[in-house]
Structures are given as structure tokens and as C-alpha cells.
Design brief:
alpha/beta; Rossmann fold; 2 domains; six-stranded parallel β-sheet; four-stranded antiparallel β-sheet
Length: 295
């Protein structure tokens, strides 16, 4: 396994891939877990070369403590990636990605950067769009791998790939879940036993709405209220949002289409975010344009 820190070295390495087989890319901010491992496994099966990037949230350096209640060990991640037989681990230095002279940002617009997660952090969309543009240009992957849990980030990256004519395709895999349905996340370790017991309620609310949709319900307001009522049944849970929206633009929907693949239809996304104690959790499921549920 090759570890690269230098942007120039990454560029030179990527140039050598042009005549080879497909390159798979998994972007991460470290603290690797089972969700990341599923993406690595898919990339290794489908690509000649597998690259994993580790770049801290909002460009922070990888110091020992990089988040509330969670100690971060970069060497652990590197060892895990070595055991998974990843070909290249790219760990760029923040001062190289954002040097003092940096002045060119990628600014996305539209509902996808105005709603839900992006609305809660004003600079989040600019950060994601700029960093991913740089990573895709440096690594030059044929396929970038994401989990369904990152639905809004996927929509944003898909938009910049299309608009900036970047020669990369996206592969979105199902969310990796615990036995009770809770989406795998580093934040789960911060939950108390009682909070951990309440946390799968997010997924159960999504499944209840899914069942109603499959029974013929198409009213978005009714489906959103059904999910809200179920989530409100736990005193430990404080709801941030419940929404059903277009998975490409994140624009709100009034009524759902039929559950059949329709030319030009993007499908729809059911998404939830809530606080349980001091921990914020998100989850979603998507009915895709190809006519199946991505969960």
C-alpha cells in the first residue's frame, strides 16, 4: 500500500493510471467504520486500483482529538486500509489543499445547498464542492463510491461532476446498518444505553412511510406527519427535520409518483435528522429512478 501526502505526487501517480484499468475512489474524513469498509470492498471488486482519501472535516489537520468525545487515531485507519489491501491512501495536508494564497472556491447553488444539512452550516456546500473538485482532479478516478447515508453530499457531488464536466461516475451503495436498523456511524458510540435503544426509531419511521407508500399512499404531507408522530413518541428524541424530496435537487415534493421506473423521473428521498441527547443522527432511504429502494 502506498501512502501519499504531496499533491504533486498524487498528480504524478494519477497520470500513470491513464493507460490502466478503472480507478475506484472512496473519500473519507477518517475514523473508518463498517460503512467505509463496504465501499472499499466494492471498489476492490470492480476496479483495478483502489484509492482512499483521508481529509479532516472542514480541512482540519489530523490531530489526536478531532471531535467531541471521539479520539482519532490516524495510524489505526492506515493499518485498517492496509489490511483491506487498498492500493493508495491519499492524506493531503490542509495547508496544501488550502494554502494561504487560496482564493478560488466552487460555489454551488439551488435547493440542494439551501435545505437540510447544508442549511445548518452555511459554508458546508462550498467546502464540499471545493474539496471534492480538487480531490477528483488530483486522483482522477473513474468511479467515486459513496454510501446512501450521504445522500445530500452525493447530490452535490453529482451536480458538480455534471456542471464542471469531470470524467467520474458515482456509485452509491446501501447504508450499512446495525442489527436493529440503526445506520452505522461513529456518533453511535456517544449514545447512552437508553439513547442507543431509542436511536433505531429513525429507521423505523422511514420503514413505516415506505410501507404506506407501497400500499398506495402518495400524499407527502400525510407521510411526513406519520413519520413525525412516530419519532415524537420518544421523549429522548428532538426532531430536526422530516422531509420527502427530490434526491437530485432536494426540492420539496407535494405528491409522490407511482412506484414504477419512469423516464425522466428522479425518484424520491425520505430523510430524517434528530438529536438524541447530545448526539445528532441522520438517516434516509431512496426510491430510485430505476424502480427500487436504496436503503
Amino acid at each position: 500500500m502506498r501512502i501519499i501526502h504531496s499533491l504533486d505526487e498524487m498528480t504524478e501517480t494519477a497520470r500513470g493510471w491513464l493507460a490502466g484499468g478503472p480507478v475506484g475512489f472512496i473519500p473519507t474524513s477518517g475514523r473508518l467504520h463498517a460503512g467505509h469498509f463496504s465501499l472499499v470492498d466494492a471498489a476492490r471488486k470492480e476496479c483495478e486500483v483502489t484509492v482512499v482519501s483521508i481529509f479532516g472535516e472542514k480541512g482540519k489537520s489530523h490531530t489526536p482529538d478531532q471531535g467531541p468525545g471521539l479520539m482519532y487515531d490516524l495510524s489505526r485507519d492506515v493499518q485498517l486500509l492496509d489490511s483491506l489491501q487498498v492500493d493508495v491512501v491519499f492524506i493531503p495536508r490542509p495547508e496544501d489543499i488550502y494554502p494561504p494564497t487560496f482564493a478560488t472556491y466552487v460555489i454551488a447553488s439551488g435547493p440542494v445547498v439551501e435545505r437540510l444539512e447544508c442549511s445548518l452550516a452555511r459554508d458546508q456546500a462550498r467546502y464540499v464542492a471545493t474539496v471534492f473538485t480538487k480531490l477528483l482532479q488530483l486522483i482522477r478516478p473513474d468511479i467515486a463510491y459513496f454510501g446512501q447515508k450521504s445522500a445530500q453530499k452525493v447530490a452535490l457531488v453529482r451536480c458538480l461532476i455534471h456542471d464542471l464536466c469531470i470524467d467520474t461516475s458515482l456509485r452509491v451503495l446501501p447504508t450499512v446498518r446495525e442489527g436493529d436498523g440503526l445506520a452505522v456511524s461513529n456518533a453511535n458510540a456517544l449514545l447512552t444505553p437508553a439513547e442507543r435503544q431509542a436511536a433505531p426509531l429513525l429507521y423505523r419511521a422511514l420503514l413505516r412511510a415506505k410501507a404506506l407508500i407501497e400500499q398506495g399512499e402518495r400524499r407527502v404531507s400525510f407521510l411526513e406527519q406519520t413519520m413525525t408522530d412516530l419519532l415524537s413518541s420518544s421523549p429522548l428524541l428532538r426532531l430536526d427535520y422530516v422531509t420527502i424530496c427530490d434526491p437530485s435537487t432536494f426540492a420539496e415534493l407535494d405528491r409522490l409518483p407511482d412506484l414504477v421506473p419512469t423516464r425522466g423521473s428522479p425518484g424520491f428521498l425520505l430523510a430524517i435528522a434528530a438529536h438524541i441527547g447530545s448526539v445528532r443522527l441522520t438517516d434516509n432511504i431512496q426510491f430510485t429512478r430505476d424502480g427500487y429502494w436504496l436503503m
